[in-house]
Write a structure and sequence with these properties.
- This protein has a single domain, classed as Exo-inulinase, domain 1 (Jelly Rolls, Sandwich), CATH 2.60.120.
- It has helices at about 1-20, 30-35, 70-75, 195-200; strands at about 35, 45-50, 60, 65-70, 85, 90-100, 105-110, 125-130, 165-175, 175-180, 185-190, 220, 230-239.
- Strand 10 (about 175-180) and strand 11 (about 185-190) form a beta hairpin.
- It is about 20% helix and about 30% strand.
- InterPro entries: AL/BT2_dom.
- GO terms for molecular function: hydrolase activity.
Length: about 240
């Protein structure tokens, strides 16, 4: 019985190790299709804090993941700010894994126009919500749950995994059409500028924001909402 248990344990460790090796890497198929890693699993190369030259120390690499550590902001006075890609993208497929802390809030924001007149990324970029739906107050607000097109469109179901588990998100943006998936479930789909979009916008907090969703090409941002969050396996396929 002990030998059997040891064998099972060894098998589980090998499987875990194999899975870990696949994170922050591209398969041969992905390479042929033109996918590109946005995060190498070791450094913050290719990123900077919004409206800043470098990456704030609050964003660090921990166990192969980009982690926002609010404790660093409090103890060392590190500047706040979303982490954004150095490059801009218009038509793309983005794949990313995220894990949120208890009571945490964050988001994946895209088509971000970086300009001092816009003090935050969300003033120009739509957001795919990242949240502890069970314990954050936003979890009780319609269109504010994980996977939602934040404050614009509610997912038909909530496929988010419990706090502490990794979630797989995907964002596809092609010629103005945006489609979101969370853990394999389509959570939103809409064409920016369509009648449906205009109606959604008119019933959202963004209806009077002059720069919101006005830029077809922009940066991708990982939101600093003051809560601990982790991102990994961030990769993009430019279309």
């Amino acid at each position: 019985m002990k030998l059997f248990s040891s064998a099972l344990l060894m098998g589980a460790l090998i499987a875990t190790s194999a899975t870990a090796q696949k994170v922050n890497t591209l398969t041969s198929k992905e390479k042929k299709e033109g996918w590109k890693l946005l995060f190498d699993g070791k450094t913050t190369t290719g990123w900077h804090t919004y409206l800043q030259k470098d990456v704030s120390p609050a964003w660090k690499v921990t166990d192969g993941a980009l982690e926002l550590d609010p404790a660093v902001q409090k103890s060392a006075g590190a500047p706040h700010g979303d982490l954004v890609t150095n490059d801009e993208y218009e038509n793309f497929e983005l794949s990313v894994q995220w894990k949120i802390s208890e009571g945490g809030n964050s988001g994946i924001i895209f088509s971000v126009h970086e300009d001092p007149q816009f003090k935050q990324t969300y003033l120009t970029g739509p957001e795919m919500q990242v949240l502890d739906d069970a314990k954050h107050p936003d979890g009780k607000i319609t269109k504010h749950n994980s996977g939602d097109l934040y404050d614009l469109k509610k997912a038909p179901q909530n496929p988010a995994k419990p706090v502490g588990e990794w979630n797989q998100a995907k964002i596809l943006k092609k010629d103005g059409k945006v489609t979101l998936w969370l853990n394999g479930v389509e959570t939103a789909s809409v064409v920016i500028g369509s009648d449906e979009w205009k109606d959604m916008l008119a019933h959202s907090k963004f209806k009077t924001w002059p720069g919101f969703a006005q830029y077809a090409k922009g940066h991708i941002a990982l939101q600093d909402h003051g809560h601990q969050v982790w991102y990994r396996d961030v990769k993009i396929h430019v279309l």
